[in-house]
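WARN no homologs supplied; continuing
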Amino acid sequence: MVIDLIQVPDERSDELVRRIPESGSGEFRLGSQLVVRENQRAVFFRDGKALDVFGPGRHTISTNNIPFLTGIIGALTGGTSMFTAEVYFVSMREFIDMRWGTSQPVAYRDADLGMVRLRAFGTYSMRVDDPQLFVNQLVGSRGAYATGQIEEFLRGVIINEFNDMLGDAKTPLLDLGGLTKELAQAMQAALTDDFKRLGLQLTSFQIGAITPPEEVQKAIDQRSSMGAIGDMGAFTQYQAAQAMREAANNPGGAGGTAATGVGLGAGVALGQSMAQAMQSATNPPSQPTASGAGASDALAQIERLNELHKSGALNDEEFAAMKAKILGS
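OK structure emitted
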């Protein structure tokens, strides 16, 4: 069947390429009309080689706009105007909201936390820049080619560059979250040549988030809590108070004897801290308001009381009474 009108008027939203015909070679003749829309380019192929690329408009196929046809028609068709070929209609639209993400965690060396595995995800936008190169590199002989068919391949390209970028980065893990814009710009620059080799243009790139595994996030939260409390001793007191509270709220729940053991161990640790604070309150240093060692001891005792108060080991009245005792008021 001879194809006299060559066009693709109804592109799908995710369609990158449509081939005419969808399989095999089509029969065309000199004088056939080729209609290319504003957001399209049409590439003629024969025997795996591109003959010409047509831009928007209505074109009449002739030996003037496809010079290679002169030899083809004369040698293979006995001088008739018929010839066989395939036409690839390539969409030149920008495809937005393409998604990427790490399927497996990526190793990252952090100065504080050591080797950490990170996950990352985001979006990007792209368009075809060189239709002939794109068809040669990725489409091949497929009858149609959509974004879903290229997204997995491009995800691999992106992750390779992302791995390289993290390997060269010296930024602490805790600071990565505030640098996603700068990292995205660096990634777009690094990926430009990768996309260009495929006949594509990367028009935008975004990093949605970079996150460590859940256990690392918990370690970061614990370290933040320790920093807020002040020192390791205070952190131990805080944990003891939390354990006592949980044991008191669930004396017969899951865990049984183990939960009771945690409560007892926490109680011993907390009891020691409270004993020290109460001893200080009972025997306050001399001249607590004067400068020197007495004032320093009083301040340290008040800080210890304050930590116990924050942890819930002392209520407001107990805290106020002990503080007043230390201050001698």
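The first strand starts at residue 5 and ends at 6.
OK
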